[in-house]
Every structure is written in structure tokens, then in C-alpha cells.
Amino acid sequence: MVCHSKNRVSWMRSIEERTGKRMRRRPMSQDEMAALTRCLKELRLGTVRSQYEAVSRQATAESWSHGMFLRELLERECQQRQQNRIERLLKASKLAPEKSWSALDLKRLPPKVSQQLRGLLSGEFLDRCENVLMFGPPGSGKSHALNAVALELVRAGRRVLFTKCSLLVQELLKAKRDLELPGLLRQLSHWEGLVIDDLGYVQQSREEMEVLFTLLAERYERGSVLVTSNLAFSHWEQIFKDPMTTAAAIDRLVHHSVIVELNVSSYRAESAKRTRIVPPPKDA
Predict the structure, then answer these.
(1) Which of 186, 201, 229, 235 is most buried, by CB atoms within 10 Å?
(2) What's the CA gap between 222 and 130, in Å, rounded?
């Protein structure tokens, strides 16, 4: 039976070479299709299973080789898997989709800042476990800028998590009290980039800042931290409560870091001025 099948394939190839035309292959029977479907389901090739027949018809119509047909199916499978992965990462990242790169007004930012933000889009700083420290007054757009960069990185397949500093500290503190802090730190270590928004915006207790320092020390040279703060380094003792811890935290963050200074006026104040309603003129 095997020899007969091989002889038939060789005969078909010989005819095709002489005539320059492809001979029609026998279509698969229902039993063969059912067996193929079972195999694809077991291998979890969902896209191949759903698109096999359509691609098969296209391959027949355009006289594709077996290799071309297989490559097209597998490329579609890979593309769909990548898309599904990115959708999962976006959902898990807790990033705000409305604070996107396209919605970021780069024209109001200093040229150096715009250049720095564009440079972050490559994601190379994540490969080097470098930190990003963004400073600026309230309303300057720090959170939007880092959120926009992080969204682009996630869409490129990178693992980035966004969290408010106050919420992160409470989560760390609860894990410590429940004797689960090592497990939480391991979970956070799976993220290539950890965005900590509004560091120092809300005053925290010494115990709360101790667990935050533990996280920063754990991620040092192991994973990137992206921080926004309206406090300059000279005021960070207000955050970490004592000079020694403050110096150690700054040292770990600044070493291997990109510092972005967003010294611009409040975006919210500018927006309020633009939308202010001018009263109508009084009657003469």
C-alpha cells in the first residue's frame, strides 16, 4: 500500500514536470477531515482549524506548493497567538487605554523630553533593567507620558504593570502582615517593567515605606521601575522618613536610570483656560 502510494506520487510529479500543469489532488474525505480536526484540536491549533478550509481553497486556486500552504497556515496561527497574548498583557497591565501615545501632546513638552520618550519606545531599557524616573509638578502630564510609553511597550509584547504608589504600598503591607510578602515580590518580578505612579504624592507611614524600599531593593538590576513623582530628590526624606533609607532608595533607583524632568505648566490648568466661557458683552 505504501509503495503504491509512493509510485502514484512519483507518477503525478512526472506528469506535472512534462506538462507544466498541476494535477488535481483528491479532496479529503469526511473521515479524513474529522481526523485532521481532532489532531488540530489536540495540538491547540485553533486558527489552523478554523481557517484550514479557506486557505486550502486559496492554495488550490493559486496552485501553491505544500510548503507555501503550510507556511500560510502556521503564520496565521502565530499572528493570532501573538495578538491574543498582547490582549492578555494589555488587560493585566492595568494601564489606561485612553492615555495613549496618539493622545499625548508632544508639542507642549520640551524637545529633550520628547526625544527621551521616543527613545523609551524601543524597550531597550527593559532589556538592561534600567529605571525611568519622571519628575514634574502636578498636572504636568507625567502619568499620561509614562502610561503612553508603557502601552506602546505592551503592544510590542513587553510585560509592564501599572499601579498607583498608594495602592501598591497597601498591597505590600497586607502581604507582609499575612506573611506572604516573598510570594508577592515573586509575582511582581515577572513583570519586566513596574510603573509606580505618584510616588510621594500621599504621605505614608514608616512601615509602609519600609515595604516599598524592600520592593525597590528586590528589583534592583533585576527589573525596571518607572516612577512618577512631584518631589525632587532633595525632598525624598519626606517619603522614606530617614536619611539612610532615603539615600539607599535613591542610589538604587538612580543607578542605571533615565531621568526625565517635565518642567512644564499644568495641563489641566491650560485646558481650563482654553475652555473658559467668555461672558457676553453688556448692553450699551
Answers:
(1) 229
(2) 9
pLDDT at 52: 82
Buried b (16+ CB within 10 A) or exposed e, 44-69: ebebbbebbeebbeebeeeebeeeeb
- Residue 131 identity: N
Question: How far, in Å, CA of 220 to CA of 129, rounded?
Answer: 8
- Residue 226: its H or E element: strand 224-229
Give how many domains the chain has, as a whole number. Answer: 2
DSSP codes joined into one string, 140-197? SSHHHHHHHHHHHHHHTT--EEEEEHHHHHHHHHHHHHTT-HHHHHHHHHT-SEEEEE
Q: Which domain holds residue 246?
A: 94-270
Q: Are residues 89 and 116 in the same domain?
A: no
SS3 content of the chain, % helix, strand, coil (to 5): 60, 10, 30
Place of cell 496618539: 102
Convert the pLDDT of each residue in 198-218 to its tens digit: 998 777 788 888 999 999 999
